[in-house]
Specification:
Elements lengths: L18 H17 L3 E2 L5 E3 H7 L5 H5 L2 E5 L2 E5 L4 H10 L9 E10 L11 E10 L4 H17 L5 E7 L3 H15 L8 H9 L10 H7 L11 H16 L5 E2 L11 E9 L7 E7 L3 H4 L7 E7 H10 L12 E5 L5 H13 L4 E3 L6 H10 L4 E5 L1 H6 L1 E6 L5 E5 L13 H17 L1
Parallel strand pairs: 1-5, 7-8, 12-13, 12-14
Antiparallel strand pairs: 2-4, 3-4, 5-6, 6-11, 7-9, 9-10, 10-11, 14-15, 15-16
The chain binds histidyl-adenosine monophosphate (HAM).
């Protein structure tokens, strides 16, 4: 007796009944990204662990606590915890940065982080993300933010606020780090173990620690905005003016530092209170140093990622509309054995022409077949019975109106089953069927 195996904690199934919602969201993000001239890219699910150490950063929670690292034979890999690292690796490896800039790509992918599961926080989740490499100016920051905003608007979402911040460049960061060290030094003993090591290496990470103790201590920490250099300040101000020009409302939130190490200057998040504590639907920012750090020639870049589970959950909570799944166009009901070959041939042709066609696979009687056709929401039912075959006609029933039409069949179909001439007959049926469908 086998015990039932259940899915791992923090993972989700999407059943065929729910998949249409995912399809709606995926179509929407693709179309919006493409309207901005972004093109899809696909990257591996796992990468060398070093990639994430170098990009996401050794002192981040993601690297220190959440990575799914596997050893296959003698080599170590890590399941991607996010999409930016692999995407930039791929841009470099494929020489994409030697092409016309900016390079603009988007992706839809699964990510893996070993976090404590809760509503909106999974161990396997999905991101839609975009990355743009090559442009320095705040126009591109506004472009990226407006892309995210366009998606949320298109989904019909309300009640999502945009928080922006600037975390400066390496120049202003040095002074800020010093101020943070001075601030946290008296609290060193009380900080969590991880943050104690962060104090020296990367004190900004303490601001993002999930431990409530560290959160409490960090409450009155100095703010990066007070330490920005002239260039970063101007960049941030221009971004704000562009957002205002586009009518995109925002709040300056100096506490947003993001959980990954590669950011410089602009960072932003779209946050909702409608789905509980894990309300950050989208997060992103500029990362001007990452590409050089990964061995490319210095190239500024910027991007974001949306958690698709969170996006979907918010859409559900707010009663947004989803495109209904396509249902059966035609159900063919053979009333007897003799009608089965024609049923199958007809079904095959119509399916190749792009119709959704089903027929009996359960050897049901005609009554049960009609019931099933109704249940699956078939638009039309074509009944093929003895009399129909002999008369060279078939009965097409419009399931919505109940109206029935006789459709002509070529009465020589049986002998000519493999003959090209029979195609004409099928074409007539297809034509009639198309006409009916269009009404
Ligand atoms: P992130 O903030 O770590 O950024 O993740 C982006 C989004 O993924 C979050 O805002 C959230 O919606 C979703 N997310 C993250 N962790 C989970 C989880 N455990 N369960 C469910 N959803 C989650 C990045 O990953 C960056 N790569 C974004 C970026 C792209 N920055 C520049 N380019």
């Amino acid at each position: 007796m086998g015990m039932k195996i259940t899915r791992p904690q923090g993972t989700e199934d999407v059943t065929p009944k729910q998949i249409y919602k995912w399809h709606t969201v995926e179509r929407m993000v693709r179309e919006t990204a493409e309207s901005f001239g972004f093109h899809e890219t696909r990257i591996p699910t796992f990468e060398s662990t070093d990639l994430f150490l170098r990009s996401v950063g050794e002192t981040t929670d993601v690297v220190q606590k959440e990575m799914y690292t596997v050893k296959a034979k003698e080599t170590e890999f890590t399941l991607r915890p996010e999409g930016t690292s692999g995407t930039i690796r791929s841009m470099l490896q494929n020489g994409m940065l030697n092409d016309a800039l900016p390079q603009k790509v988007y992706y839809i992918l699964s990510c893996f982080r070993h976090e404590r599961p809760q509503a909106g926080r999974l161990r396997e989740f999905h991101q839609f993300g975009v990355e743009m490499a090559g442009s320095t100016g705040p126009v591109s920051d506004a472009e990226i933010i407006s892309l995210a905003k366009a998606i949320l608007d298109r989904a019909g979402l309300k009640n999502i606020v945009l928080h922006i911040n600037s975390i400066g460049c390496p120049t202003c960061r040095a002074a800020y780090h010093q101020a943070l060290r001075a601030y946290f030094a008296p609290h060193q003993e009380t900080l969590c173990e991880t943050c104690q090591t962060r104090l020296e290496k990367n004190p900004m990470r303490i601001l993002d620690c999930k431990s409530p103790v560290c959160g409490e201590i960090a409450k009155d920490a100095p703010l990066i905005l007070d330490y920005l250099c002239e260039e970063c300040k101007e960049h941030f101000e221009k971004l704000q003016s562009y957002l205002t020009a586009m009518g995109i409302e925002f709040t300056i939130n100096p506490k947003i530092v993001r959980g990954l190490d590669y950011y410089t200057k602009t960072v932003f998040e779209f946050i909702t209170t409608d789905i509980g504590a894990q309300g950050t639907v989208c997060g992103g920012g500029r990362y001007d140093g990452l590409i050089a750090q990964m061995g490319g020639k210095p190239t500024p870049a910027m991007g974001f990622a949306m958690g698709l589970e969170r996006l979907l959950l918010t859409m559900e909570r707010q009663g947004c509309e989803f495109e209904q799944p396509k249902t059966c166009d035609l159900y063919i009901a053979p009333m007897e054995e003799r009608a089965i070959p024609l049923t199958m041939k007809l079904g095959q042709m119509l399916r190749i022409s792009g119709y959704q066609v089903e027929y009996d696979l359960m050897s049901r009687g005609i009554k049960a077949q009609m019931k099933y056709a109704n249940k699956i929401g078939a638009s039309f039912v074509l009944v093929l019975g003895e009399t129909e075959l002999e008369n060279g006609t078939a009965n097409l029933k419009n399931m919505q109106t109940g109206e029935q039409t006789e459709i002509a069949l070529d009465d020589t179909f049986e002998e000519k089953f493999d003959d090209i001439a029979i195609q004409g007959m099928f074409h007539d049926i297809v034509n009639d069927f198309e006409k009916e469908c269009k009404q």
